[in-house]
Design the sequence.
C-alpha cells in the first residue's frame, strides 16, 4: 500500500495548481503528502528538498513532462530507497511521462492500490577525467552528449570500448544514450530507436565528417571513453540536456551503466508501441 506520496512539479502555474489539487485529493484518502520546496512555497504548504523525497516516500508523482521527469530521475538515483516514479504530462504526450492530467486520478487509484506495473530503466554514469583525476561525475537517464558551441570548429574524439580502440571520430559531437534516451537527441541525429527493455546503449556521432562513422549499439556491460584530442573551443559535456560541464583538451569522458535503475510506473492501457505511434505520427 502506497501511504507516503511525494510530488515534484514543474515551475509553471498549471503544474502548481495540479499539485495543490492532487495534495488535497491524496490527503482526503489518508495519504501523507511530501511536496518539493519550490512548489510548496507557492501553494503555501510545508515543503521538502526534492533530493530528500526518495528517502521519505513510497512513490513520487512528477507533474510536468519528460524534462521534469529527467530531473526527478537524477534525484532518486543513487538512493538506497529506489522508489517508483509516476510521470504526468501537462502538455503533449511524453515518451516517459505517459499519463495525462485528465487520466491522473483514475490511474492513481490503481497506483495506490499497487496495481500498476513498474518498469526499470537503465541509467548511465558519466565522468570527466582530467590529468588522471576524476573531476566530476553524473548520473543520467537519457544521455551524455559531447557537443560544441555554435561557432566552434569540428572536434576530434578518440573513442574506446573497454580500453580497446574503436575509432577516432571527427564530428560536431557524440551522443551516448540509454534505450530511454534513444528517442531523444540521438534519434534526431540519426540514431536507432532502442526498446527500453534492452540491455545496451548507443553511440551516435553528430554530423560526422566521415559518413562511415555510424551509430553503434553496445552491450551495457562495457565502459566507453571518449578523449577530446582537438583544441578545446567551447566543448561541453551535457547531461540529459539539463546540466553542463566544460571540457578541456585531452579530457576523457567515461560512460558506463549506472549501479542504479529508475523505476517508472507504466500507463495501465498505453503500451510503448502506442506511445511511439502517437509521438512519431506513425500511420498518419
Sequence:
Amino acid at each position: 500500500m502506497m501511504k507516503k506520496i511525494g510530488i515534484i512539479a514543474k515551475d509553471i502555474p498549471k503544474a502548481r495548481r495540479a499539485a495543490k489539487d492532487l495534495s488535497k485529493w491524496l490527503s482526503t484518502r489518508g495519504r501523507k503528502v511530501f511536496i518539493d520546496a519550490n512548489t510548496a512555497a507557492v501553494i503555501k504548504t510545508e515543503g521538502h528538498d526534492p533530493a530528500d523525497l526518495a528517502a521519505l516516500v513510497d512513490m513520487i508523482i512528477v507533474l510536468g513532462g519528460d524534462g521534469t521527469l529527467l530531473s526527478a530521475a537524477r534525484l532518486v538515483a543513487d538512493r538506497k530507497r529506489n522508489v517508483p516514479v509516476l510521470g504526468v504530462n501537462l502538455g503533449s504526450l511524453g515518451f516517459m511521462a505517459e499519463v495525462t492530467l485528465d487520466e491522473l486520478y483514475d490511474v492513481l487509484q490503481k497506483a495506490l492500490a499497487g496495481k500498476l506495473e513498474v518498469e526499470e530503466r537503465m541509467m548511465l554514469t558519466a565522468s570527466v577525467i582530467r590529468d588522471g583525476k576524476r573531476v566530476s561525475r553524473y548520473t543520467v537517464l537519457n544521455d551524455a552528449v559531447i557537443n560544441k558551441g555554435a561557432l566552434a570548429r569540428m572536434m576530434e574524439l578518440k573513442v574506446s570500448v573497454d580500453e580497446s580502440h574503436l575509432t577516432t571520430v571527427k564530428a560536431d559531437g557524440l551522443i551516448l544514450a540509454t534505450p530511454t534516451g534513444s528517442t531523444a537527441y540521438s534519434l534526431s541525429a540519426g540514431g536507432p530507436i532502442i526498446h527500453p527493455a534492452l540491455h545496451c546503449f548507443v553511440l551516435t556521432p553528430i554530423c560526422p565528417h566521415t559518413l562511415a562513422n555510424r551509430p553503434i549499439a553496445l552491450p551495457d556491460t562495457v565502459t566507453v571513453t571518449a578523449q577530446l584530442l582537438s583544441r578545446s573551443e567551447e566543448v561541453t559535456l551535457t547531461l540529459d540536456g539539463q546540466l553542463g560541464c566544460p571540457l578541456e583538451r585531452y579530457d576523457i569522458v567515461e560512460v558506463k551503466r549506472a549501479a542504479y535503475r529508475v523505476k517508472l510506473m507504466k500507463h495501465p492501457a498505453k503500451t510503448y508501441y502506442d506511445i511511439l505511434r502517437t509521438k512519431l505520427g506513425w500511420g498518419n
User: Anything to note?
Assistant: The radius of gyration is 20 Å. The chain is about 20% helix and 40% strand. The helical segments are 13-27, 37-43, 53-56, 66-76, 104-112, 185-188, 272-280.
